[in-house]
Amino acid sequence: KVMRFNCFIFDFDGTLAHSEPAYRDAYQHTIRLHTGLEISETEFPDYWNMTPQEVLGRYSDEMLEEMLVSFEEHYYANHHHHLIAYDGIADLLGALNQSGARTAIVSLKPRRAGEIELDITGLRSLIEVSVWGDDVERAKPDPDGVERAMRHFQADPRATLVIGDS
To answer: How far apart are CA 102 and CA 109, in angstroms?
Structure first.
């Protein structure tokens, strides 16, 4: 028997949107501003599934709160310069929607950023439900966000595909 998926739950960063340059720019700016350190791109590959608190805490515990403020200010002021949907993503989501499939985003990203970035990437109209990291008690990698999206759709787990970059 062929299994047919009718519910597709996507991660946002690194799956639908090429957002690494926006994060890298904000991290480099913040670390340089508060510590004077210049951080190369080679130091960033393992940071993509970490919160800003975890990343910036590696560089300073004492200044963490100030660094988080600087990071957010810089990120929100500049992310629109760096963020794009991957090629073909809008076509894929459009085809899924046309076929009657349900589409959702479950991301570690906070709602404040995610909602803006759906507009920046032009994907808002193609996603039916979004569950952001601060919408659930336990964010990814815990399953709370995926379970919430599935409940919204009343989705059958056997017909649901979760797609992410890690």
So the answer is: 21
